[in-house]
Amino acid sequence: MIDLKLIRENPEMVRANCVRRGFPIDIDGLVKLDGDARALTQEIETLRAERNRLSKLCGSDPDARENVKRLKVTLGDKEAKLAKLQEKIRQVVIRMPNLLAPDVPDGLDDTGNVEVRKVGAIPSFDFKIRDHQELGEMLDILDTARGAKVAQAGFYYWKGKGAILAQSLFFWVQRFLVERGFTLFMTPCAAKERTLFGTGYLPFFADQTYNLVGEDLALIGTSEQTLVGYHADDVLDGNRLPLCYTAMTPCFRTEAGSYGKASRGIFRVHQFHKVEQIIFCKPEESPKWHEFCLRNEEEILQALGLSYHVVNVCVGDLGAPGYKKYDIEAWFPAFGGYREVTSNTNLTDFQSRRLNIRYKTDDGRRDFVHTISATAVTDRVMIAIMETFQQPDGSIVVPEVLRPFTGFDRIGPEK
Questions:
Q1: Residue 55's pLDDT is what?
Q2: How many Å apart are CA 234 and CA 128, to the nearest integer?
């Protein structure tokens, strides 16, 4: 959520930002509403002061008592009018996108994302490449058919050594992050509407949410929601920042995905698993911690031996809460291209204003923290491993860093 003071003092900048981001918001109308609310607030404060003055005279002055009664009625009417004005302002402000970093590129969709760097040679094969769906079925480690039978399309089972490999990947990544100063959490898998609103998933991604009927709850789409919501209404100690949190959770999203080659297998599904990086930091330090999370993501993929490139996400592919975002896209051999495996967003104070998360400065002031939300790993990294390290017989070589946790170095066809 954008600071109303910033909108008031820099309406042209905010208007240009909304236009660039494709949000048709009446900034002039908002500024007028804000001016009306401020004027009415001043009137109310003046009337309250007069009421308080007259209240002290009520014991000796009958006219004072009548005037107090009249003022109470007037105040009630004006306070109700102010509440309506403030709600109108709120309904506009909560639908405004975040500001953009100066180096966010133009572009309407992911084709406008700009490559920052490319790491690792694209793997080559002297045999026919199988995609992760075919490999998973051949090795009996991935079952989408029974996932659809038990739930619906978009749900799946990791099975046998596939489940062991997935668990090993998630465990290794969590340990990696703990060694870099993150506190490990096990969070709820459901969150209230206020939490989803506060993290920016409502109203901007409402169509992606699985709501629980009859409850003020929805299944989480990411542990970002529960980890950021953890500090709602808190005043953090500025001397303890940054706070670095991580969790591995199932994530639920209603997205149906696309058709054809892009949707085959489990690249885009309704339930997946993710290890998240969340950072609460001082405003002036958020660019540094944004880059810190990116380094973690890259070191993880490099240790796994995967080829990838980093892209600076363009304005048309950047969600409304984001200020700046990096995606990492790994090379998927069967797809024959790079596909997103992690995303890393600097959200500045967009979430902290909505959830009222502040920190105490050295001089005693209270200011809003900045938040960083960055994927560390998801099941997509699993399927990139499967496709990258497949062998002619359909077996899969396990990345060396995961072997101490799997107890095996290869997944081969069952004899």
A1: 78
A2: 56
